[in-house]
Write a structure and sequence with these properties.
Layout: H1 6-20, H2 22-25, E1 27-31, H3 36-42, E2 51-54, H4 61-65, E3 67-68, H5 70-76, E4 81-82, E5 90-94, H6 102-113, E6 119-124, H7 135-138, E7 143-146, H8 162-171, H9 179-191, H10 198-213, H11 221-231, H12 253-256, H13 260-265, H14 271-279, H15 286-293, E8 305-311, E9 316-322, H16 333-340, H17 344-350, E10 365-382, H18 388-409, E11 411-419, E12 422-430, H19 433-439, H20 451-467, E13 471-478, H21 492-508, E14 512-517, H22 524-533, E15 536-539, H23 545-557
Parallel strand pairs: 1-6, 1-7, 2-5, 5-6, 10-11, 10-13, 13-14, 14-15
Antiparallel strand pairs: 3-4, 8-10, 9-10, 11-12
Helix pairs in contact: 1-10, 8-10, 9-10, 10-11, 11-14, 18-23, 20-21, 21-22
């Protein structure tokens, strides 16, 4: 039988510590896609202490905090409430935790802060790097592990025997961490840019739990080091700087006068050992993760989804709101009854109604949903002039690359080429790679530069796509040197004026866009057009298809 992976060993050790102190350690985040490895890990969760409750990432406020029991209220004629998950200590297991909305994250964080024994097991199934558990929850949990790199053979999660776990729980209250060790953990957190004061406290609780598991009489240096390795790495934000080596002549006389008692009571574990232990387990993309955390768009920016929109038929359910049906929305019967139930006793004494339930218009609540629209990337390519063949060839390759990613990111792609006196929609909005390659097999090129006509075609397509519920974004590949006006007449001044007018209109209606200057020697013309368009300007005179697709995806997501 093969040896378990160090990742599996650390995950099992963290889970064992959580099993004996769930209230103190608060929980664990597990990044692993559905499969045999995650199934093997989940099979150990019943070993945790307390009730295990599995809830969806879209858990409602009624489930979390309780609410009116409609049937009991109507039967008894007085408000009768059901308790929520916040009333009884439990370990809440949440699959697809990367989909937890900010509001739900805040409510779960509040439940953890109430300190009545709740803990969370967050099963992160994100595919893209940006799809992660909300940082507000990660900052409250002691442990995080990534199991995606494990094979099924390596996924050997070995927990102590039940009797040993019970003994560890009994020993835990008698174990305390020394004040010097807590100070050392706090200083260690600052070395890694951790400004969350919960983290050193969680590490201290983890050290006590590990000592209890090892049947130790006191918390030893090895437990402090292991706790730091388990807790600190996923909270780190910077790489630690090496401390300066102070020479003997720089040390003051006061610093060198240390009493024998201070030497005897000082902690023997050097700080450098802790730093090296934590640094060895830092994620390889630490600096990238830190930059992404500071992005105003958060983790959903790169997910490829379009904008949110309210609906009344489908999507993620939102809390019902008071309102009246107008033929376009539907009544939420549960919310309506919940609003009317407390008033039934009063209404019966004030009226002669014989109905089982008396509902007033003010009780009516309307169903609401939130739906995410698909994103549509519209390539608008300058196919004029002598360099048209090269530009169209690279645009074609970029569109094919983005089409290949469309299924995962829920994108659609379209291609408009302008040349001569007009513009042509070569590729209607699609996410089909086969259809896209067929329609892109023969791309025309040459002639004048009707830039304004190309922008007008893009504007028409964006308006049409918005009517169909898409979120359009533009990627314009051009050198900006227009020479054909909207009416097809040659002339640079008129052509440039028409292009400027349309660009400002596109900016006014709020279409996100990026302009890639394809000129051999980029100048101010395309940059000025990008300013009128409100687009991000990129000068890439010699970029290949892969580079264009990467630039477009990055520019439109940040």
């Amino acid at each position: 039988m093969s040896q378990p992976s160090p990742i599996a060993t650390r995950a099992a050790r963290a889970l064992a510590a959580l099993a004996i102190d769930p209230a103190g350690l608060k929980g664990m985040s597990v990044r692993a896609r559905s499969g045999p490895v995650r199934t093997a890990f989940e099979s150990l969760l019943p070993r945790l202490t307390g009730a295990l409750r599995r809830i969806p990432p879209t858990v409602s406020d009624v489930q979390l905090f309780g609410g009116l029991n409609i049937a009991a209220t109507l039967a008894e004629g007085r408000p009768v409430s059901d308790p929520g998950l916040d009333q009884t200590a439990a370990i809440l297991v949440i699959p697809m935790a990367e989909r937890i909305a900010p509001g739900v994250s805040a409510r779960l964080g509040n439940i953890l802060d109430m300190s009545i024994g709740h803990a969370l097991i967050l099963l992160d199934e994100g595919v893209e790097a940006e799809e992660t558990v909300p940082s507000s929850l990660l900052g409250r949990l002691a442990f995080h592990t990534d199991l995606n790199s494990l094979s099924f053979i390596q996924a050997q999660f070995l927990l102590p025997a039940p009797a040993d776990m019970d003994h560890a729980r009994d020993r835990l209250p008698s174990l305390r961490i020394a004040p010097g060790d807590l100070s050392k953990l706090t200083l260690l957190a600052t070395r890694f840019g951790i400004d969350n004061l919960r983290v050193p406290t969680l590490a201290a609780r983890a050290a006590c739990a590990l000592a209890a598991l090892d049947r130790a009489e006191t918390v030893k240096d090895t437990h402090i080091c292991e706790a730091a390795e388990l807790v600190m790495p996923h909270h780190a934000r910077i790489l630690p700087e090496p401390e300066r080596d102070n020479s003997a002549e720089d040390r003051t006389e006061a610093d060198s006068e240390i009493s024998d008692a201070e030497v005897a009571t000082s902690n023997a574990l050097p700080e450098d050992i802790l730093v090296d232990a934590v640094a060895a387990l830092l994620p390889p993309d630490l600096l990238t993760l830190d930059a992404r955390d500071k992005s105003p768009k958060g983790r959903t920016a790169g997910g490829g989804a379009g904008g949110r929109r309210l609906g009344n038929r489908r999507g993620r359910p939102l809390p019902a709101r008071s309102g009246k049906p107008d033929g376009r929305n539907r009544i939420d019967p549960i919310a309506t009854l919940r609003n009317a139930a407390p008033w039934q006793g009063i209404r019966r004494t004030q009226t002669d109604e014989t109905r089982a339930v008396i509902i007033y218009p003010s009780d009516l609540h309307i169903r609401r949903f939130e739906d995410r629209s698909d994103r549509l990337l519209i390539f608008v390519v300058d196919a004029s002039g002598s360099a048209a063949i090269a530009r169209l060839s690279e645009a074609k390759g970029a569109v094919e690359i983005l089409l290949a990613q469309a299924y995962v990111k829920r994108d659609q792609v379209a291609l408009i080429a302008f040349r001569g006196t007009g513009a042509e929609l070569l590729l209607p909005p699609t996410r089909s790679l086969v259809q896209g390659k067929r329609l892109l097999s023969a791309l025309p090129g040459g002639g004048g530069t009707p830039l304004a006509t190309g922008l007008r075609a893009a504007l028409s397509l964006t308006e049409l796509s918005q009517d169909r519920g898409l979120s359009p974004m533009l990627a314009l590949l051009t050198d900006g040197r227009a020479n054909v006006s909207l009416d097809g007449a040659p002339g640079r001044i008129t052509a440039q004026s028409d292009a400027t007018t349309l660009a400002k209109h596109i900016r006014q209606i709020g279409i996100r866009s990026v302009l890639i200057d394809t000129a051999t020697r980029p100048g101010t013309i395309a940059a000025t057009l990008a300013g009128d368009l409100g687009a991000r300007y990129l000068a890439l005179p010699r970029v290949d298809a892969k580079g264009i697709s990467a630039v477009v995806d990055t520019a439109l997501n940040h």
